[in-house]
């Protein structure tokens, strides 16, 4: 009986501590929410198959409607590799950038709401020469295109 | 608070072209310092761009996006004088919002 009582006390105490932390602003509900929205599982993957699984899709189809622009064949500095992707597939919902030989394959996922051009550019880091995949989700289906980028100086040095 | 972003929004025909340069370390968590200790990961996880209260682009990033990230995209609509807002949140829960006037 005593043991039960202790458990209850413990549980109660824990609750109070949490509530106090929240009240004191230690636990920011917004920050917690943002972390939830971030797909940690997908960003922790090491292969195309794993990434696809984490994103909730099947094997992507090769597509010629996805094109790279402003993307070099040879990147002198792996820490800053410009990548531009355009999707000509109708109803493009999202564009993801995957780098095959990086420690974690997925670099970025962009959600494209209707009215926004399915074309964007950014800069990524590459540890070594590798294939870069542009993964496009359109109308619930996945499509992919790839491009090999040679890196003369890695972006993960240190 | 992190340093401000540099945002340029330009009206091109019936669309608006947005270019953003954020100030962020984007530490991967793979590098080691001089003492051989791993430098903890610190990077932007999510980015949202809004125009007229409507989201025009949202993104989730991993640490493979370059330091001081650059992003450029285009959306339909937007006239001179209106505002575009960009918000990012990093893995430490730090947040920054900046806005630019479409020119």
List low-confidence stretches of chain A: 14-36
In total, the number of domains of chain B comes to 1
Largest sheet of chain A: 6 strands, mixed
Number of domains of chain A: 2
Shape of chain A, please? globular
Question: Looking at the chains present, what oligomeric state does this protein adopt?
Answer: heterodimer
What amount of the residues of chain B lies in strands?
A: over 45%
What is the level-2 CATH architecture name of the largest domain in chain A? Sandwich
Task: Give the uncertain stretches of chain B in residue-range form.
Answer: none
Percent of residues in helices of chain B? under 10%
Rg result of chain A: 22 Å
Total strands of chain B:
7
Cα gyration radius of chain B (Å):
15 Å
What helical percentage do the residues of chain A reach? 25-40%
Secondary-structure-based class of chain B equals: mainly beta
How does this model look, in words?
The complex is a heterodimer of chains A (158) and B (103). Chain A has helices at residues 2-23, 29-37, 40-43, 48-55, and strands spanning 61-62, 66-69, 74-75, 81-87, 92-99, 106-111, 116-124, 130-138, 141-151. In chain A, strands 1, 3, 5, 6, 8 and 9 form a 6-stranded mixed beta sheet that branches. In chain A, strands 2-4-7 form a 3-stranded antiparallel beta sheet, with no helix packed on it. Chain A is built from 4 helices and 9 strands; from the N terminus they run H-H-H-H-E-E-E-E-E-E-E-E-E. In chain A, a hairpin with a 2-residue loop joins strand 8 (130-138) and strand 9. Chain A has 2 domains: 2-37; 40-151, Immunoglobulin-like (Sandwich). With 158 residues, chain A is an alpha+beta fold. Chain B has strands spanning 6-12, 15-21, 44-51, 54-61, 70-76, 83-90, 95-101. Chain B is mostly beta strands. In chain B, the strands form 2 sheets. Chain B has a 4-stranded antiparallel beta sheet, with no helix packed on it. Chain B has a 3-stranded antiparallel beta sheet with strand order 1-2-5, with no helix packed on it. Classes of the chains: A alpha+beta (158), B mainly beta (103). Strand 7 of chain A pairs antiparallel with strand 5 (70-76) of chain B, so a sheet runs across the interface.
């Amino acid at each position: 009986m005593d043991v039960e009582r202790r458990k209850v006390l413990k549980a109660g105490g824990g609750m109070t501590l949490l509530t106090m932390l929240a009240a004191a602003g230690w636990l920011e509900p917004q920050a917690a929410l943002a972390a939830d929205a971030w797909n940690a599982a997908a960003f922790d993957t090491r292969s195309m198959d794993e990434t696809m699984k984490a994103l909730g899709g099947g094997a992507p189809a090769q597509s010629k409607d996805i094109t790279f622009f402003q993307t070099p064949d040879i990147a002198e500095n792996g820490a800053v590799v410009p990548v531009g992707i355009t999707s000509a597939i109708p109803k493009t919902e999202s564009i993801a950038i995957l780098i095959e030989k990086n420690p974690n394959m997925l670099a970025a996922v962009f959600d494209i709401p209707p009215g926004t051009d399915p074309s964007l550019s950014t800069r990524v880091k590459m540890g070594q020469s590798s294939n870069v995949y542009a993964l496009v989700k359109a109308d619930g289906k996945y499509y992919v295109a790839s491009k090999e980028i040679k890196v003369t100086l890695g972006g993960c040095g240190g | 608070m992190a340093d401000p972003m540099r945002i340029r929004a330009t009206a091109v025909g019936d669309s608006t072209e947005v270019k953003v340069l954020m100030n962020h370390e984007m530490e991967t968590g793979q590098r080691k310092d001089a003492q051989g200790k791993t430098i903890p990961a610190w990077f932007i996880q999510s980015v949202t761009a809004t125009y007229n209260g409507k989201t025009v682009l949202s993104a989730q990033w991993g640490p493979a996006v370059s330091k001081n990230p650059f992003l450029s995209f285009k959306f339909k609509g937007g006239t001179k004088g209106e505002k575009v807002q960009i918000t990012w949140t990093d893995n430490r829960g730090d947040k920054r919002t900046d806005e630019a006037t479409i020119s």
